[in-house]
Amino acid sequence: MSIRMTQRRTAASVRSAAVIGSGVMGAGIAAHLANSGMRVLLLDVVPRTLTEAEERKGLTLDDPAVRNRLAEGAVAGMAKSQPAPLYDSAWTSRIRPGNLTDDLSLLGDTDWIVEAVVERLDVKREVLAAIESARRPGTLVTTNTSGLSVAAMAEGRSKEFREHFAATHFFNPPRYMKLVEIVPTEDTAPEVTELLGELCVSRLGKGVVVARDTPNFIANRIGTYGMLVTLADTIRFGLTVEEADALTGPAMGRPKTATFRMLDLVGLDTLLHVVDNVRERSEDEAERDIFARPQVLEELVGMGRLGEKSGSGFYRKRKDADGRSRIESLRFGTLEYGPQVKVSSPVLDAAKAAKGAAAKAKALLGANPQDRYAQFAWSTVKQTLLYAAFQVGVIAESVVDIDRAMKWGFNWELGPFELWDAIGLRSSVARMSEEGESIPEWVEAWLAAGNSSFYRISEQKRFFVSGGGLREERQEEDVISLAALKEDGRTVLGTSGASLIDIGDDVVCLEFHSPNNAIGGDILSAIRQSSAEVSRNWRGLVLANEGRNFCVGANLMLLLMEAQAGEWEEVEDIIRFFQDSMLRLKRLDRPVVAAPHRMTLGGGVEACLPADVILLSPETYFGLVETGVGLIPAGGGCKEAAIMAMQRAGLSSSAATKGSAGASPGDLQPHVNALFETIALARTSTSGHDAAKQGLLRPQDRVLVRQDARIAEAKRLVLELDRAGYAAPEEERVAVAGREGKAVLAMGVHAMRLSGHISDHDALIAGKLAHVLAGGDVRQGARVSEQYLLDLECEAFLSLCGESKTQERMSHMLTKGKPLRN
Ligand code: NAI
């Protein structure tokens, strides 16, 4: 098996792609390929009949609009679909829709062709034959199958084609789900598997697991098994649908959709299809029994109850007499629906109260074995763990591959083997044996050799069981784990809300770890202490963390209490402390790089703005959203926005960004207007790329596709700045839009109020924001100090805190977790 490549191809050399099939997955994959900057051709079949609308327009089956209808419809749908498949909705321009009959020859000009048509071997084979007739040698071809045999699909194709062919199994939705299973056949050239892995990781930001060509690969095989045993146990233990979901969701470190809500989303007919695929292809009788069609599923599908897409499945939505929506759940005995019953029990409470997936699982599975819920949870988990263990070496190379597949493909917080370690490997295997379960030989041998866990951490490296010994888990070189560094004693200093961690090469990382990573006094104190420490002893600072979100904003609780008590001096102290902490970061004589991921809101953005570089991820949702709680940014956010507007107008005062010749104060207005709109409407970016479009980034800021490499990349940037001879930015004399600018903004606010787009209170807040962003009552183009702008922020913020409607907004956010428009 040889493959001729004159030089090794890199992921960067793959510039164009084609996706065949523009359904749910084809459209999602095409969008995500476009996200990576590729030009994408999206092809589907030519429709055989006209729609009524097409007939009315007088179109015929020969019109391109009709012939490309499917792919064109898919592209048009991308701008509307939620969650958004594109980082920027304008990037539909990178996708060219077409059809397989007229545009097949265009495949000769693409570097990578992804087949994503219906899950039928005969159809996929036909499509691959057509692809072979048009592609040029060397083009990568992959199939997005959920679990058909990849080798069977390639039968009849040339050797050269088969060398370049494998499965790339994306999960839905492709932009958001981390897992891609790459399934090579025996004929796939190893360089091709490697190149596909590199493409998926570095260009698409995915996590790759190489799987064997067995039915449904890894994640769907184990996930489906888990759902089947949960369904069977729910009936056996006499539990309700909602009880089973309460036990198999977050209480077990799994997503809220748990089991039955997830099944409704996937589609009950789809599940049957997946189940059939394993049963029909399995040579193991016991396995064929496990993957028998559950009677209740057959009945529901027979009744047309397919889940969400048909309006009912294990749950259904009904309207009350008063028009309110209510979710009802299925009764297994009668297949009727009834109101959901609230689930509560001490076992569930204990799991909910425990912190982290490992502690939750321990609380749930280690509870009193007489408890029915604990028995059910133990039974489903036990079977899933054993099944996964029997699959090592059969469907997957190692425990790590199975754990990663379940974490990245099913959003489990812990993979089966990590969970097993967490609940105690030795004691749980003993319990399983007592209960008469057969234990895989390799697990028994591992325990007999004196081991008591599948994983072991030593010197920041994780080792896993493999072939009777321990093997080091291969991490991408550029992944830095703060958790592992902390375990290794590399914490330099810390408060209850944040820790400063030595990440090597004389660089430190400040990690927030308060509840929801909200910024309170503890984090601000840590920022101040860290600034002093970095200045004395380190080359630079990274701001990043491994929480669910980077930071959801400032902690409103204390602020609201002080405001309600009318303690204005205290409120002012809080603002000044925040502003001063941010200034210390900005003036630090060492480089600072912030690497925010996921939700980065309000104070979270303000904490990033003093950094020399902000390194976002595609999945960073970045926004100054203070108006949503009745306030304006007052931790330096407005001041930094005014500086950005000045720099964009070419009026900067600092040496590094000297004003461009000919710029005049009037040039400020469009930039101030745009930022005003973003902040007043509390806009949050839908991706890292979109944050630039919202005007919240500076020219030096950037987006890194691989979110898990962000800390290492931020460190690299710190070192680069340090080597270049870093000096802290000089204080700006900020040219502001002044009275004239404020009047323009005020007119806009007035029009919005008149048209009913905003409330009186929104208009009041927007008026204060306009005052601060425009630099108050000075002439247009006047230069003001940064401190003056901070004073304006503080004054406006204080006055808003005194408004009862602002206090209502804050209180609503604290109790309901969402903004109130009053
Ligand atoms: P879908 O039904 O939404 O789309 C299938 C597309 O294939 C349609 O646009 C259809 O017009 C097109 N098609 C049908 N026959 C064709 C032919 N002869 N030539 C060209 N195109 C043809 O299906 P979906 O969900 O997008 O699935 C596509 C593939 O992705 C399947 O193999 C499925 O198993 C796999 N998959 C699906 C996932 C999901 O969650 N929906 C997840 C992962 C994989």
Explain what this protein looks like in three dimensions.
- 45% of the residues lie in helices and 13% in strands.
- With 822 residues, the chain is of the alpha/beta class.
- A hairpin with a 3-residue loop joins strand 15 and strand 16 (498-502).
- The longest helix is centred in the middle third of the chain and has 20 residues, at 372-391.
- 1,4-dihydronicotinamide adenine dinucleotide is lined by residues 20-26, 44-45, 70, 100, 116-119, 123, 127, 144-146, 170-172.
Provide tags for this entry.
alpha/beta, 822 residues, 13% strand, 45% helix, globular, seven-stranded mixed sheet, binds 1,4-dihydronicotinamide adenine dinucleotide, 25 strands
Write the SSE topology:
Elements: E1 16-20, H1 24-35, E2 39-44, H2 52-56, H3 64-67, H4 69-78, E3 95-99, E4 112-115, H5 121-134, E5 140-143, H6 150-154, H7 159-163, E6 165-170, E7 179-184, H8 190-203, E8 207-210, H9 219-236, H10 241-248, H11 260-266, H12 268-281, H13 285-290, H14 295-302, E9 315-319, E10 325-330, E11 337-339, H15 346-353, H16 357-365, H17 372-391, H18 399-410, H19 416-423, H20 425-434, H21 441-448, E12 455-458, E13 461-466, E14 469-472, H22 482-487, E15 491-494, E16 498-502, E17 507-512, H23 521-537, E18 540-543, H24 556-564, H25 568-587, E19 592-594, E20 598-601, H26 603-608, E21 613-616, E22 620-623, H27 637-648, H28 668-680, H29 688-693, E23 702-703, H30 710-723, E24 733-735, H31 738-754, H32 760-773, E25 783-785, H33 786-801, H34 804-816
Parallel strand pairs: 1-2, 1-4, 2-3, 4-5, 5-6, 7-8, 17-18, 18-19, 19-21, 20-22, 21-23
Antiparallel strand pairs: 6-7, 9-10, 10-11, 12-13, 13-14, 15-16, 16-17, 24-25
The protein binds 1,4-dihydronicotinamide adenine dinucleotide (NAI).
